[in-house]
Amino acid sequence: MRAGLGESDEQDIVVMGRPELTKLYSEAIQIAGRTPHEVNGEQAFLAGAKGIAELIE
Fold first, then answer.
1. Sorting pLDDT into bands at 50, 70 and 90, what band is 11?
2. Which residues contact residue 12 at a Cβ distance below 8 angstroms, ignoring those fewer than 6 apart?
3. Which residues 6+ apart lie within 8 Å of 13 measured at CB?
């Protein structure tokens, strides 16, 4: 975490994955002084796939 956070000045960080895992990363990001935004990976994938399917129909 520390190495990756040092590469950017962004304060907001999106964490995508399973909720039980993103919660852990979010806690570490908060400790590092940044603002995490959790995204459920499965829901994001399904929404993206649906959007693509609608474009190619």
1. confident
2. 34, 35, 36, 37
3. 5, 29, 34, 35, 36, 37
Cα distances from 44 to residues 1, 16, 18, 48, 54, in angstroms, run: 23, 8, 11, 6, 15
Task: Please give the Cα distance from 2 to 25 (Å, whole number).
Answer: 12
Cα–Cα separations (whole angstroms), residue 35 to 1, 16, 24, 29, 43: 13, 14, 13, 7, 21
pLDDT in tens, 31-56: 989 999 999 999 999 999 999 999 99
DSSP structural state of residue 18: -
In contact, 15 and 29? CB cutoff 8 Å: yes
Distance CA 10, CA 46 (A): 27
